[in-house]
């Protein structure tokens, strides 16, 4: 009987580990491309949803009823991506917050300023497009709350005509809660998380589980080991379930049921969270979809990776598309202002909006990289500051339980 060679056995074990690592890396690359596709499609659905304005066109617009569902997809995607980057690239709090703040503020600050300018000019050109969709009263409160992302903390403060901005005011606080959970421990973590939850209120917390679903999908590695047939089964099941969800209009049906249960007043107070029951079902469908897609991504990796460069370049405009489209749609309509409300007017509005986003997005999207370096340097300098180390930090630590 031949004696096993320990060196050969070790080499075989190393080869197996290396093979598994390469396998996961390939699948991660393919799945990343899939997420880029989902992200861009979700942004397009939100744009189409907000373009179904009867003043733009009275014709039928396909795929124009999935705006809220697309935002839920964004929340799940966001949880997954943030869990990934905090686990691989941004483990330190400085790196984490420099990236988050740079990504958000590189577009949020210009977007709100641009919204005010476009609304002001657009209302003078064609006020009919702005009736009931924007407001300028208490502009200073709207401006500050938008930049501090407190628009949806307990009460809803409209960010001028930029309706989609509400989801950013949810997401920023999810970043905060996730950071507190990951970067702190003990009673300090508990106290600060509780304080943030009290500050942001029930509306934002109601949709937090959807964001957490993305985190769970990333951290749960077991589905990598599912048989391929199970991955396909999960993926196809999610498509069927979403078809049923859409067919029976469960977003609206379950929201109407909630209205009957809690009354009109509290239903209105929930604002964008009034669909949370249906959103939980949709989150479960997204969970099944991502688990299945992640498992089968390697099977279609060659075709997906072949076009991954183009997909990534297109998806780089996702955030610009999402945060800028509403004020640009209204401004484009007021600028063109054709008397006809047919497809030609609608397509002209959409074309003008898309071209504007490409130009503005190309400029603004690049700003996050120097802004990230600047923020990281400022945070590091504050941490090294003698005043911070000797006076401010000891006071903060003394105020918080150990």
What does this 3D model show about the protein?
The protein has 402 residues and is an all-alpha fold. The chain starts with 5 loop residues before the first helix and ends with a helix. The chain is globular and about 65 Å long. α1 runs parallel beside α15 and α9 runs antiparallel to α12. It has one domain.
pLDDT < 50 runs, ≥5 residues? 1-27
Question: How much helix is in the residues?
Answer: over 70%
Mean pLDDT, nearest integer? Answer: 87
Succession of helices and strands:
HHHHHHHHHHHHHHHHHH
The backbone outline, from C-alpha atoms, is globular
Using only CA atoms, what is the Rg? Answer: 24 Å
Tell me the total number of β-strands.
0
Helix-strand makeup class: mainly alpha
* Percent of sequence in beta strands: under 5%
* Domain module count: 1
Q: Describe the sheet with the most strands.
A: none
Terminal-residue CA separation: 63 Å
* Total of DSSP H or I helical runs spanning 4+ residues: 18
